[in-house]
Amino acid sequence: MLVLRSLLFNVAFYINLIVWLILLIPGFVVPRKAFMRLVQTWARTSLWLLRVLAGTKVEYRGLERIPAGGLLVASKHQSLWETFALLPVFDDPTFILKRELQWIPFFGWYTWKADCIPVNRKAGSQALVAMTAKAKEEVREGRQIMIFPEGTRRPAGAPPAYKYGVSHLYQSLGVPCLPVGLNSGLYWPRRKFIRHPGTIVVEILEPIPVGLERTEMFRILQERIEDSSNRLYEDGRREIGLPPVSAKA
Fold it and tell me: Structural domain of residue 103, as residue ranges?
Protein backbone atom coordinates (compact mmCIF):
# COMPACT_ATOMS: atom_id res chain seq x y z
CA MET A 1 0.00 0.00 0.00
CA LEU A 2 2.83 2.40 0.85
CA VAL A 3 4.50 1.77 -2.51
CA LEU A 4 1.22 2.19 -4.41
CA ARG A 5 0.33 5.45 -2.67
CA SER A 6 3.85 6.77 -3.23
CA LEU A 7 3.64 5.84 -6.91
CA LEU A 8 0.27 7.55 -7.34
CA PHE A 9 1.49 10.69 -5.65
CA ASN A 10 4.76 10.92 -7.59
CA VAL A 11 2.95 10.53 -10.91
CA ALA A 12 0.29 13.08 -9.92
CA PHE A 13 2.89 15.51 -8.54
CA TYR A 14 4.87 15.67 -11.77
CA ILE A 15 1.76 15.79 -13.97
CA ASN A 16 0.50 18.67 -11.82
CA LEU A 17 3.89 20.37 -12.16
CA ILE A 18 3.82 20.08 -15.96
CA VAL A 19 0.26 21.43 -16.08
CA TRP A 20 1.23 24.41 -13.95
CA LEU A 21 4.35 25.08 -16.02
CA ILE A 22 1.96 25.53 -18.96
CA LEU A 23 -0.67 27.48 -16.99
CA LEU A 24 1.97 29.91 -15.78
CA ILE A 25 3.01 31.00 -19.29
CA PRO A 26 0.56 33.95 -19.30
CA GLY A 27 2.07 34.91 -15.95
CA PHE A 28 4.96 36.55 -17.80
CA VAL A 29 2.71 39.52 -18.61
CA VAL A 30 1.29 40.10 -15.11
CA PRO A 31 3.05 41.94 -12.25
CA ARG A 32 5.58 39.86 -10.37
CA LYS A 33 3.58 39.79 -7.15
CA ALA A 34 0.51 38.49 -9.01
CA PHE A 35 2.75 35.86 -10.59
CA MET A 36 3.93 34.80 -7.13
CA ARG A 37 0.31 34.31 -6.05
CA LEU A 38 -0.06 31.82 -8.91
CA VAL A 39 3.12 30.02 -7.85
CA GLN A 40 1.82 29.82 -4.28
CA THR A 41 -1.40 28.28 -5.63
CA TRP A 42 0.67 25.60 -7.39
CA ALA A 43 2.43 24.89 -4.08
CA ARG A 44 -0.92 24.47 -2.32
CA THR A 45 -2.16 22.04 -4.98
CA SER A 46 1.01 19.99 -4.50
CA LEU A 47 0.47 19.89 -0.73
CA TRP A 48 -3.13 18.83 -1.32
CA LEU A 49 -2.03 15.96 -3.57
CA LEU A 50 0.53 14.87 -0.98
CA ARG A 51 -2.13 14.79 1.73
CA VAL A 52 -4.81 13.04 -0.34
CA LEU A 53 -2.68 10.50 -2.21
CA ALA A 54 0.23 9.82 0.16
CA GLY A 55 -1.44 10.63 3.47
CA THR A 56 1.29 13.16 4.30
CA LYS A 57 -0.01 16.30 6.00
CA VAL A 58 1.77 19.44 7.15
CA GLU A 59 1.61 21.42 10.38
CA TYR A 60 3.04 24.93 10.48
CA ARG A 61 3.92 26.09 13.99
CA GLY A 62 4.84 29.60 15.10
CA LEU A 63 3.38 31.52 12.15
CA GLU A 64 2.68 34.39 14.52
CA ARG A 65 6.47 34.88 14.86
CA ILE A 66 6.88 36.01 11.23
CA PRO A 67 7.69 39.75 11.17
CA ALA A 68 6.11 41.95 8.53
CA GLY A 69 8.17 43.24 5.60
CA GLY A 70 11.70 42.49 4.50
CA LEU A 71 13.23 39.45 6.14
CA LEU A 72 15.98 36.84 5.85
CA VAL A 73 14.52 33.33 6.27
CA ALA A 74 17.03 30.54 7.03
CA SER A 75 15.53 27.06 6.82
CA LYS A 76 16.73 23.53 7.39
CA HIS A 77 16.93 21.70 4.05
CA GLN A 78 16.22 17.95 4.04
CA SER A 79 14.00 17.45 1.02
CA LEU A 80 12.59 18.81 -2.22
CA TRP A 81 9.44 19.40 -0.17
CA GLU A 82 10.43 22.68 1.47
CA THR A 83 11.38 24.27 -1.85
CA PHE A 84 7.65 24.63 -2.55
CA ALA A 85 5.93 24.04 0.82
CA LEU A 86 7.39 27.20 2.40
CA LEU A 87 6.09 29.43 -0.40
CA PRO A 88 2.50 29.83 0.90
CA VAL A 89 3.75 30.73 4.39
CA PHE A 90 5.25 34.09 3.37
CA ASP A 91 3.77 37.16 1.73
CA ASP A 92 6.34 37.78 -1.02
CA PRO A 93 9.12 35.16 -0.89
CA THR A 94 12.11 34.75 -3.16
CA PHE A 95 14.80 32.06 -3.09
CA ILE A 96 18.57 32.19 -3.30
CA LEU A 97 19.43 29.42 -5.78
CA LYS A 98 22.15 28.03 -8.01
CA ARG A 99 22.49 30.02 -11.24
CA GLU A 100 22.37 26.79 -13.26
CA LEU A 101 18.73 26.24 -12.23
CA GLN A 102 17.79 29.32 -14.24
CA TRP A 103 18.91 27.62 -17.42
CA ILE A 104 16.19 24.94 -17.17
CA PRO A 105 13.41 25.60 -19.72
CA PHE A 106 10.19 26.94 -18.22
CA PHE A 107 11.22 26.37 -14.59
CA GLY A 108 14.32 28.51 -14.95
CA TRP A 109 12.44 31.19 -16.86
CA TYR A 110 9.92 31.41 -14.03
CA THR A 111 12.70 31.93 -11.49
CA TRP A 112 13.71 34.98 -13.53
CA LYS A 113 10.11 36.23 -13.47
CA ALA A 114 9.97 35.66 -9.70
CA ASP A 115 13.18 37.70 -9.26
CA CYS A 116 14.96 34.84 -7.54
CA ILE A 117 18.55 35.49 -6.51
CA PRO A 118 21.06 33.40 -8.51
CA VAL A 119 24.46 32.37 -7.21
CA ASN A 120 27.33 31.59 -9.59
CA ARG A 121 29.36 29.21 -7.45
CA LYS A 122 32.28 29.35 -9.87
CA ALA A 123 32.70 33.10 -9.42
CA GLY A 124 34.29 32.85 -5.95
CA SER A 125 34.07 36.00 -3.83
CA GLN A 126 32.36 37.87 -6.67
CA ALA A 127 29.41 35.50 -6.35
CA LEU A 128 28.85 36.68 -2.78
CA VAL A 129 29.03 40.33 -3.85
CA ALA A 130 26.49 39.85 -6.65
CA MET A 131 24.17 37.77 -4.47
CA THR A 132 24.23 40.38 -1.71
CA ALA A 133 23.53 43.26 -4.09
CA LYS A 134 20.52 41.48 -5.56
CA ALA A 135 19.26 40.45 -2.10
CA LYS A 136 19.43 44.09 -0.96
CA GLU A 137 17.25 45.11 -3.91
CA GLU A 138 14.65 42.49 -3.06
CA VAL A 139 14.58 43.15 0.68
CA ARG A 140 14.03 46.86 -0.01
CA GLU A 141 10.87 45.76 -1.81
CA GLY A 142 9.73 44.14 1.44
CA ARG A 143 10.43 40.59 0.28
CA GLN A 144 11.38 37.54 2.34
CA ILE A 145 14.77 36.18 1.23
CA MET A 146 14.74 32.40 1.55
CA ILE A 147 18.07 30.65 2.07
CA PHE A 148 19.13 27.13 3.03
CA PRO A 149 22.24 27.79 5.16
CA GLU A 150 23.70 24.34 4.51
CA GLY A 151 23.61 24.97 0.78
CA THR A 152 22.18 21.60 -0.18
CA ARG A 153 19.82 18.92 1.10
CA ARG A 154 21.03 16.96 4.10
CA PRO A 155 19.43 13.64 5.15
CA ALA A 156 17.16 13.85 8.19
CA GLY A 157 19.29 13.32 11.29
CA ALA A 158 22.61 14.03 9.51
CA PRO A 159 25.23 16.21 11.25
CA PRO A 160 24.86 19.92 10.36
CA ALA A 161 27.04 21.55 7.71
CA TYR A 162 26.22 25.26 7.83
CA LYS A 163 28.02 27.79 5.64
CA TYR A 164 28.90 31.34 6.67
CA GLY A 165 27.15 32.96 3.70
CA VAL A 166 24.00 33.30 5.78
CA SER A 167 25.76 35.40 8.45
CA HIS A 168 27.27 37.63 5.74
CA LEU A 169 23.78 38.23 4.33
CA TYR A 170 22.42 38.92 7.79
CA GLN A 171 24.97 41.67 8.38
CA SER A 172 24.61 43.12 4.90
CA LEU A 173 20.81 43.24 4.70
CA GLY A 174 20.09 44.80 8.09
CA VAL A 175 16.86 42.84 8.63
CA PRO A 176 15.95 40.15 11.17
CA CYS A 177 16.76 36.51 10.40
CA LEU A 178 13.97 33.98 10.89
CA PRO A 179 15.19 30.42 11.65
CA VAL A 180 13.02 27.51 10.47
CA GLY A 181 13.27 23.92 11.71
CA LEU A 182 11.52 20.97 10.11
CA ASN A 183 11.50 17.18 9.68
CA SER A 184 10.46 16.81 6.02
CA GLY A 185 13.30 14.40 5.22
CA LEU A 186 11.60 11.62 7.19
CA TYR A 187 8.46 11.74 5.07
CA TRP A 188 9.91 12.82 1.72
CA PRO A 189 13.49 11.46 1.83
CA ARG A 190 15.95 12.90 -0.65
CA ARG A 191 16.67 10.70 -3.69
CA LYS A 192 14.03 8.16 -2.64
CA PHE A 193 10.71 7.17 -4.13
CA ILE A 194 8.73 6.48 -0.95
CA ARG A 195 6.50 9.13 0.65
CA HIS A 196 5.64 8.22 4.23
CA PRO A 197 2.21 9.08 5.65
CA GLY A 198 2.12 11.26 8.74
CA THR A 199 2.58 14.94 9.52
CA ILE A 200 5.55 17.01 8.41
CA VAL A 201 6.11 19.74 10.99
CA VAL A 202 7.57 23.15 10.14
CA GLU A 203 8.56 25.23 13.15
CA ILE A 204 8.96 28.99 12.73
CA LEU A 205 11.40 29.97 15.48
CA GLU A 206 12.10 33.19 17.33
CA PRO A 207 13.56 35.81 14.94
CA ILE A 208 17.19 36.81 15.42
CA PRO A 209 17.17 40.62 15.77
CA VAL A 210 19.31 42.98 13.76
CA GLY A 211 22.67 44.03 15.15
CA LEU A 212 24.36 40.88 16.44
CA GLU A 213 27.99 40.13 15.61
CA ARG A 214 28.36 37.65 12.75
CA THR A 215 29.77 34.73 14.71
CA GLU A 216 27.20 35.16 17.47
CA MET A 217 24.35 35.25 14.96
CA PHE A 218 25.74 32.16 13.23
CA ARG A 219 25.94 30.26 16.53
CA ILE A 220 22.40 31.19 17.56
CA LEU A 221 20.99 30.36 14.13
CA GLN A 222 22.54 26.90 14.00
CA GLU A 223 21.60 26.17 17.61
CA ARG A 224 17.95 27.11 17.13
CA ILE A 225 17.48 25.29 13.84
CA GLU A 226 19.27 22.14 14.98
CA ASP A 227 17.53 21.96 18.36
CA SER A 228 14.15 22.27 16.65
CA SER A 229 14.90 19.92 13.75
CA ASN A 230 16.42 17.24 16.01
CA ARG A 231 13.38 17.30 18.29
CA LEU A 232 11.00 17.14 15.32
CA TYR A 233 13.12 14.33 13.85
CA GLU A 234 12.63 12.24 16.98
CA ASP A 235 8.89 12.99 17.00
CA GLY A 236 8.64 12.00 13.35
CA ARG A 237 10.55 8.76 13.86
CA ARG A 238 8.03 7.74 16.49
CA GLU A 239 5.15 8.65 14.20
CA ILE A 240 6.35 6.48 11.31
CA GLY A 241 7.31 3.61 13.61
CA LEU A 242 11.10 3.94 13.78
CA PRO A 243 13.03 3.54 17.03
CA PRO A 244 14.55 6.60 18.73
CA VAL A 245 18.07 7.44 17.59
CA SER A 246 19.40 6.56 21.05
CA ALA A 247 17.80 3.11 20.83
CA LYS A 248 19.13 2.66 17.29
CA ALA A 249 22.65 3.48 18.45
Answer: 56-248
